[in-house]
Amino acid sequence: MLKNAQVIMRYGPYSSIGLSVEHRTYRLEGLLAVMAEDGHQVFLEKIEDWNVVELMVNEEVVFRCNIKDLEFGGDGKLDPLCREARIAVLNAY
């Protein structure tokens, strides 16, 4: 299990409630909180792929999901995708 990893969180733009398509971090808050709780250092990187979140460890994508599937705000503890991402990062090597 990998602890205190450097994680690159790549995220694309998405549209929210009919607003324009932009890079927003509101849906990443829970994922960021889960990574910080495990002691990982997270670097945010904007990408041009719409609706995408990728977590990279050691230059390898270990987790990928649709950004709209993440819960809005919160601490990520009840979000099943945050739990899945946490396990993927811990199992990275």
Mean pLDDT: 92
- Percentage of β-strand residues: 25-35%
What is Rg?
12 Å
- How many distinct beta strands? 4
Portion in helices: 10-25%
Kindly identify the CATH topology. Glutaredoxin
Residue runs with pLDDT of under 50 for 5 or more positions = none
| Strand line-up in the sheet with most strands | 2-1-3-4
| Domain tally | 1
**SSE string, helix = H, strand = E?**
EHEEEH
**What is the name of the CATH class?**
Alpha Beta
Description:
The protein is of the alpha+beta class and 93 residues long. The protein has one domain: 3-Layer(aba) Sandwich (Glutaredoxin). Helix content is 22%, strand content 27%. The protein contains 2 helices and 4 strands. It has helices spanning 29-37, 80-90, and strands at 6-11, 41-46, 52-57, 60-66. Strands 2-1-3-4 form a 4-stranded mixed beta sheet, with helices on one face. Helix 1 crosses helix 2 (80-90). The longest helix is centred in the last third of the chain and has 11 residues, at 80-90. The termini are close together. The model has no long low-confidence stretch (mean pLDDT 92).
